[in-house]
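B., you asked whether I could sanity-check this one before it goes into the benchmark set. Here's the sequence:
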Amino acid sequence: MLRKGERKNLNRKYTIIALLTMTMLLFNISLSNIPSVSAVEMPLRDEILWGNGYWPEPTSFCPAIMDWGQGWDTYIMYEAMFGVDAASGHLIKWLGESIEWIDDYTIKVTLRKKVLPDGKIAPYWVKITDWTAWQAGTGGVEYYRQITAEDVKYSFYLYGGFDESPDGMYWHMDGFKERVGSDVNFEIVDDRTFKVRVKAAYPRSPVVYETLTSCFLIMPKDIWQQIEAAYPGWIPDFPNDWTNNTGATPPEWRVASGMYLPWFIYTGSIPFYTIMKKNPLWWGIDVLGRQPAPEYLGYRLYETNDQIVEATKAGLIDWDGDYLTGITTYPEWNTYLYTYLPSSPYFIDVLTKILVPNHRKWPLGEQWLHHAITHVFDVSRFNELSSYYLYTEPSPLYIPNDDYAARTLLNLTIEDHFKEVYFDGTYEPDVAEALSIIQANCVDKNGGTWEKGEEAYTKDGPSMAWVAKYLVDDVDLTVGTVTHPASYWDTNGFGEADQLAGVAGINVKLGPWELIDVVGWTDINAISAEIAYEVTNDLSISLTFTPIDYGAYETAMDYTGAPFDFSHECMTAGVNNDMYARYFQFFVGAVNAYNHFGDYRNSEIEALLVQLEIPPPGKTRQEIANEIQEIVGSELPFIPTAGHPDWYIYYTKYWTRWPNSLHAFTPCSPYGGSGQAANLQYIILSLGSAKCPSDINNDRKVNIADVFVMAKAFGSYPGHIRWEFVADINGDGKIDIKDIYIAARNFGKTY
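And here's what the prediction gave me:
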């Protein structure tokens, strides 16, 4: 056996060779349908906040499809009722003022409402009435009307929240729809109040509450009714590109509510970019008492990682959400560059990377095989590949450290137990233990005791209990190299699959198997290459790694004919989801559902998850969660490999009050999704100009209004009831005399 140092060198060589074969362009998103517009005068550098990240340029600005090809433009020009801070679990109030259960079956939601001196009501929609004037900065934007509960109801209709919603359109609210049903159960009380009634089977449903607080963007009903009529059957065909004057977006449809509105798109040469301009009539100035500091928001689109690295070094990007190697050298690049954590691991954990075995192929779903595979993993090496020593403790229960909502029911005793079982508490490979597991469950091709270097065959075949899980829809199941419908195996047994006639039991060979991954997901690709090497080298089981394009990957994960062996995944239920939502996605997906990882089926977990949402009398959610975690940990239906980071680099030369581990708030990336729109806007509103961090409300002067905010929040810290993110001027995670001193020193300053 190779010594550890020699083995690591080979691993690195193998990984480099594998990765060199991949397409490394992470951001090759087509912009062919987004035209350039006439030239405008570029903003001064200290007036614009430049962002960059995973999906910077949308294929559509259509909020009705949310996180399918959306850039931050869409998440900023429209707004949500609520969000949830993943760092603390606290509710973010945006368009919404309050949400509460008024009985076991009814949630009451109240929107913000303020009557302004001119009689207009906020929050409100604005309309671009003169595009030329808007671009020139001479006007062109007007008050349109109040945002009402009718707008919320119609938006939920477009998202698929009701029986009456467009048929199968946007797949965002299946759980909400199942529990609420008809739109008559979404009762409009008045212009700012509505009630949502859930079905009798779902008292105090966390799914319904979670949907109402999960950042779904609200759209103006009268405008989007026209759009729905113009694009019958498929609203995503509507690009909603305001800068396109070809008529695709009629001028009368340029209605939104956000802090920033579309202003300019450039597609002449790399880097492409979009720029949004501050909405001078934004409702939050009157209701929230402050406005965003940057006059403009820009988002750059580069072609390669190298270009992004150089732009970051040069200070051309203020807010970066890319996977960039060499993070340990960032302090040497520029004194204004920082990450969420001041030292390794630099980033925070938002997802779990998992190795997904195909449970329709035997023996890929067997617990003993998973156990053996985990014992050859060099997790420290995976962490090195995953953004430079990012995590040291992958959770066998699949819940990352920053997922506040999901972790509220996490039993650390259970988690620690299974860490010990599968990772020996060391996260270093234990090849001897892995080999002993294979030996205990396998024989060689001659029927004798298996030794490393020989071909391993199972000692016994699958159980009929495995087949029984798939009889309900009679899908194809593969045993070794033989594939038949579940009903065939149930009737005829497994004799046809026996590869070692004359040896007791049904014996099938371990491998050769293939591991698939999405080309371009560089850190996951690197781990995939490492896994393939370790399983092949240490267990004598041939495992090859094949990077494929995203479309082919989705097809392979459809399970039709059970084509894949192993897959590497990082797409899990994200922040703001509780343990029910996360585990439901994993374990109770519909037949053939892409997110039902590996088609793992366990009726006991399914039943427990129903109880986890609505606990039966005499049983607590924690007790139910414990039972689920015991099953998940013991069976290890898919295999954790590493954490998946929220890549977050920020630049302080022009903008300050960024979130970090002390000045806590997550998520922090400049790109989001349907669960992060309010979070994204909250961060932007919280930033201040580096010219004067004491200007809390960003009105370009330090006065009594700023002092009043600090006075209310004095003595608070993240999680405290009086905590005000923006009042922590020096970013040390507390509002104290140091912040007061900075404000006093700058009192009366204008800029």
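One thing to flag: The longest strand covers residues 348-357. Otherwise nothing jumped out at me.
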